[in-house]
Amino acid sequence: MREGSCPRCSLLNPGYKGESCLGVKIPDAHLRGYSLWPEHGLPQLIQPDGPGVPDTDFLLYVRVAHTSKCHQEAAAIAYAACCQLDSADRPLAGTIVYCARHLTSPGLSHSDIVTATLHELLHALGFSGQLFKRWRDCPSGLSAGENCSTRKQVTGRDEWGQLLLTTPTVSHSLARHLGVPGPLRGAPLEEEVRITPWDDERNWE
Q1: Residues 86 and 163 both lie in one domain
Q2: Would 139 be classed as within a structural domain?
Q3: Whether pTM exceeds 0.85
Q4: Phi and psi dihedrals of 129, rounded to 5?
């Protein structure tokens, strides 16, 4: 499935080395191709369309490295971001970066790594402050994108100032998980400044 459209550029940036997400080089096989469009004449094909990854809803890229972010945050096991959305604002791909030197910490257990992985996977799947505004409210039982509306507000704060995710499904699901009657006000969210590599202009399969 091809998402988005390629801009009609007349010049190629000499420093362009392909698409990347959190330092992971995205294979050309996963991307749409692109051409140069001269002022006159036919376009010149530079990179043909890649075959993509058939029968796949989401791609997760994984990197293990000691990055500058890992160096700055000594307690970080991993960090992640959603890399690209489709035309219906559903996540197509994400990246998790594991901090290599921190993985060998003697105080780090296998359970800690599993918990961190699940946490970062949620970020890769679009659970981040930058993407809340793109969440959509769709009636159940309908095909994706049918009669959906963009949510105006999905977060709020309680009387103690805690940031909450307040969609009805989240509130009811959290109540069931905790075994308490009735929906809760919402699920608490961490508040952390994250730099996301997501960019509308990337051309993905």
Answers
A1: no
A2: no
A3: no
A4: -60, -35
> For residues 24 and 17, is the Cβ–Cβ distance under 8 A?
no
Domain identity same for 98 and 56? yes
Letter for the amino acid at 165? L
Return the active site residues. 120
Residue 202 tokens read as 């990337």
Q: In which domain, by residue range, is 79 found?
A: 20-133
Instruction: Quick: pLDDT tens for 137-196.
Output: 776 665 655 677 777 778 889 889 898 888 888 888 889 999 988 888 888 887 654 444
Distance CA 70, CA 42 (A): 47
Tokens of 33: 């191709």
pLDDT for 40 equals 83
User: Encoding tokens for residue 124?
Assistant: 């890769």
One domain for residues 30 and 126: yes
User: Which pair of structure tokens corresponds to residue 119?
Assistant: 């946490």
Calpha distance 92→101 (Å, rounded): 29
Parallel, antiparallel or unpaired: strands 155-157 and 20-21: unpaired
